[in-house]
Amino acid sequence: MQTKEIELSDKEKVEALRRKYGHETSSHAFPSLYIWKEDLGSSLYIEEDVFTVKCSGLGSNTWFFPCGAPERVFAVIEELSQVPDLNLIYMRQEDKIRLEEWFPNRFRIREVQSDGEYIYDRSEQEVLRGQKFASMRQEMNKGIRQFNYEVVPFTGKEIPFLIAVRNQIENESRFAGTKDATRLMLEQWDALGLTGITVLMDGRPYAVTAGFPLSEDTFDLCLLKQRAYLTGLSVFARCEMYKRLPANFTKINCEEDMGIAGIRKMKELMRPISITRMYEAGMEKEERDGETNCESGLL
Hints:
The protein is of the alpha+beta class and 299 residues long.
């Protein structure tokens, strides 16, 4: 199956297909596809009623589960399965059910916990009201009192500080880190429809957070970078980002945890209202390690 380079000119068609067929995951959103194309070695197959992405960086025959009209999704998978060792990744629950119905006993399917996308109630995350957010609220307020945080718009031209790095014992990844993803995001900030804020402390930038519209009611938070791990800084940055979003966004997608224990714990403490479970399917005899891993679920 012939693929092409993922280009900005593909954005309108990819997003139209996502909207038409109700595919609201970050994994298949065009900004994500474009940002990660170099790190994942991705290329695009797209036609009138279906698209999918080949990820050469994850295997010679590894593809995103197609998005499109059911009959075309079926036909694409059938064609892909003619090549040995097909892997289908970023499958939602409904995709898993379809695959089992269409191709009984031909695929080994398993959940990939690290690929699940965390969904939050925007109003809850803005105010952090109630006992379940007490520790986060206290941490943020302590940081505000101690460091006098303030907020300005993020231009998207460059990250205005050296990024703090924590050692991650789980930092063995299936692909290279996030250097190219961050670069592509900043290079095409406006074209990808990104918006963000910078948090200052004593007039110096200490954190950047940003994202893009994922659907009519969901905003995708794809970037959170810090100069240092100051008390309450990440919580404050997220809250201030949400406060500045248009009213139609009632949900926040904070993407996957990449299998990194610290990120998973943080996202669980934020109290998601749901997690979009993700699966992968392989036709090969041996399962590969599906724990997608990199620096952070947020770029």
